[in-house]
Design a protein that fits this description.
51% helix; single chain; alpha/beta; 184 residues; five-stranded mixed sheet
């Protein structure tokens, strides 16, 4: 579509490809794309160690760093009471790295029919990889983890399998996706 519309692989074609990907994310229902939110680390109060760490990590995303063989960070888990800036940090990291932020609502992964939850989880993670390089903000991750631990045997292990899928993906992924997980 992009090549046909723009007559080849041009900058405009790249923008069309990205917009098509963003539309696919929007259709998924569990995620949204946040582009150029405008938040910066200067907008974040406190969190000095985290801000310092993220500034250090920012250099690992450059092409020079990749050619040199530097490993990109996997991500960060931000835990705290509501209103402490966890969401603001996730958006600011996207601005710092000049990457779009893909917000995933962990609670929206769980479906009511057999197999829905597992499929939703796999599709969401595949979409994050397809959109890379991005910041993947997993909002309220405790919803998914809490469901897994509280469900016990009442859901036939659906919640536990969903959490296991996410944890395995976090460990083994190679795509340039930095995860900013938030939990209350």
């Amino acid at each position: 579509l992009a090549c046909q519309t723009h007559g080849g692989f041009t900058a405009a074609a790249g923008a069309t490809v990205y917009q098509e990907k963003a539309q696919a994310v929007k259709r998924s229902g569990a995620m949204e794309v946040l582009l150029h939110t405008g938040e910066t680390l200067d907008d974040v109060g406190g969190h000095d160690l985290l801000k310092s760490y993220m500034l250090d990590c920012a250099g690992t995303y450059s092409p020079d760093a990749q050619r040199f063989g530097l490993r990109m960070p996997k991500g960060v888990l931000l835990v705290g009471v509501p209103g402490t800036g966890k969401s603001l940090v996730a958006k600011a990291v996207g601005s710092l790295l000049r990457l779009p932020v893909l917000r995933l609502d962990a609670g929206a992964l769980f479906g009511s029919y057999v197999g829905d939850s597992e499929r939703n989880t796999r599709e969401a993670l595949a979409m994050a990889v397809a959109m890379a390089p991005i910041v993947l903000w997993i909002d309220e991750i405790e919803k998914g983890i809490g469901m897994a631990s509280a469900a016990g045997s009442t859901d036939s292990g659906v919640s536990s399998r969903g959490v296991a899928t996410i944890l395995t993906w976090l460990q083994e992924r190679t795509a340039p996706v930095i995860v900013m997980a938030t939990a209350n």
